[in-house]
Amino acid sequence: MRIAVVRVTVDPARELPPETLRQRSEYFAAQANKSGMRVLSMPTEQHRELRVSLPGTDAAELRETVAALCADVFGTRPEIGPATFVSHGTDDDAHGVLAGFGIAGELSRVDSGEGYDIVTVRLAAADIGGIPESRIRTALEAALNCEVQVIVD
């Protein structure tokens, strides 16, 4: 399962007094834990942003889940940032990157003999449409932290 991180400015209008912000942040953390989320950083009086990690693959759905809990707990109109995904260099991460482009592919790995993997990704030409191959390769290299060869059939 992929893990997303969502950043949220919980009080963009700076309406909450510091003590209320602290109390609601603690309550949010407790509710987030019950919901399978993990609070990575809490808002402060100066920076009213929190970071939450949660499992899932649908970025829009994950953002909405966090937004709903924030709105409920803080009683504000939170500003939700993008969902980014934590990468551990696994094949699941690579499939997640491909899914982000709306495509699927076959992966294979070989040991380079020099201490790193080389991942070959086979894609159907009809699937990639107008997506530049270099963009796909760069995203995969960033997620996998290894050499990636893209083969378009």
* Average pLDDT score: 91
What can be said about the biggest beta sheet?
Answer: 4 strands, antiparallel
Number of beta-strand segments: 7
| Principal-axes shape call | elongated
Strand order of the largest sheet: 2-3-1-4
Number of helical regions: 5
Which band does the percent of strand residues land in?
25-35%
Structural class: alpha+beta
How are helices and strands ordered from N to C? EHEEHEHEEHHE
Distance between the amino and carboxyl termini: 28 Å
Radius of gyration: 19 Å
Low-confidence segments, ≥5 residues, pLDDT <50?
Answer: none
Question: Share of helix among residues?
Answer: 25-40%
Write up this protein.
With 153 residues, the chain is of the alpha+beta class. It has helices at 18-34, 59-74, 91-100, 125-128, 133-144; strands spanning 3-9, 38-41, 49-55, 79-86, 106-111, 117-123, 147-152. The strands form two sheets. Strands 2-3-1-4 form a four-stranded antiparallel sheet, with helices on one face. Helix 1 packs across helix 2 and helix 3 (91-100) packs antiparallel against helix 5 (133-144). The longest helix has 17 residues, at 18-34. The two termini are 28 Å apart.
